[in-house]
Write a structure and sequence with these properties.
The protein is an alpha+beta fold. The protein contains nine helices and eleven strands. α6 packs across α7.
Length: 298
């Protein structure tokens, strides 16, 4: 049966309420919890789930139920933009699944979330009803606090659910997309203006690298800043190219890269490409990887 991945992001990364949700999801039949990443500064947690459409839909609805019970956006604060307790929930095709399968599942789950929990739902990426709603950043602009006014505009009526935000859970964005890499680079400085300048330079919307979305954010608990990115096509714009671009822009401003981090999971091919680049391996191909040959012969 076709396998689908879902990567719901909830607006909580500091309190002990996240792990019980993960434990419950991991116990559900027909669904695998592949990863959980929580970040206190962003105040956000990212779950990675995989399964067939029906059990995966059930798990996502359970996640919404639990998140609504424990997250109140009127009290929640963090560095990451958000408009919902469950901020975004994409579906991604895996083995034998198609993008059409994911679009259908996104619309089914969106209708159920709106009907069951009274939450306004916007569809994005491949499931979007209009070009203006294709990009997540357009829907999220204004955040939770701006929803009451934004939702009264005809252009921002939700695809499902009421015309006003849920009092504590806001709204949510559900859709279907290709695999994405959440990739952050931490800079050895506390100057937020530098991180924001670099983010503006490298992101696609400002004429930078194709398929790169970027924000500059502070990490006050560590006294540094971060260029936080989503890479939406690692084949066309590989991770190492993004790293080098940020390193170059930082060096021009007298700043070094402290470290980088991957949020959630990453395709093996993306790391293989990066390793081949930085090691300057001539004529590298996947058949040279020991584990790849072992899998091929099994």
């Amino acid at each position: 049966m076709p396998l689908i991945e879902s990567i719901p992001n909830i607006s909580e990364g500091r309190r002990a309420v996240v792990q019980p949700i993960a434990d419950e999801l991991a116990s559900l039949p027909g669904v695998r919890l592949l990863d959980l990443h929580s970040d206190a500064t962003h105040n956000r947690s990212v779950f990675t789930l995989a399964g067939e459409a029906a059990p995966l839909a059930g798990a996502i609805l359970r996640l919404y139920q639990r998140a609504i019970e424990v997250i109140d956006l009127r009290e929640q604060r963090g560095e990451h933009p958000r408009l919902g307790a469950v901020d975004v929930c994409p579906f991604v095709p895996l083995e034998d699944a198609t993008m059409a399968d994911c679009v259908e599942l996104a619309k089914t789950v969106a209708a159920a979330v709106a009907a069951r929990f009274g939450i306004p739902v916007y569809l994005y990426e491949e499931a979007a009803a209009s070009p203006a709603r294709r990009h997540l950043e357009n829907i999220r602009r204004g955040g939770f606090e701006g929803l009451p006014v934004k939702m009264q505009e005809e252009a921002w009526a939700p695809d499902f659910g009421p015309r006003q935000p849920h009092v504590s859970a806001g709204a949510t964005v559900i859709g279907a997309r290709r695999p994405l890499i959440a990739y952050n680079i931490n800079l050895a400085t506390d100057r937020l203006d530098i991180a924001r300048e670099i983010a503006r330079t490298v992101r696609a919307s400002n004429g930078g690298l194709p398929f790169v979305k970027a924000l500059g954010i502070p990490l006050p608990d560590r006294g540094i800043v971060q260029v936080s990115m989503n890479l939406t096509n690692h084949v066309e714009t590989p991770v190492h190219r993004v790293f080098e671009a940020v390193r170059r822009e930082a060096a021009q401003r007298g700043v070094e890269i402290l470290e980088s981090e991957i949020v959630g999971l990453i395709p093996a091919a993306a790391l293989e490409d990066a390793a081949a680049h930085f090691l300057k391996v001539a004529g590298f191909h996947r058949a040279q990887i020991l584990e790849q040959q072992l899998r091929a012969g099994s």
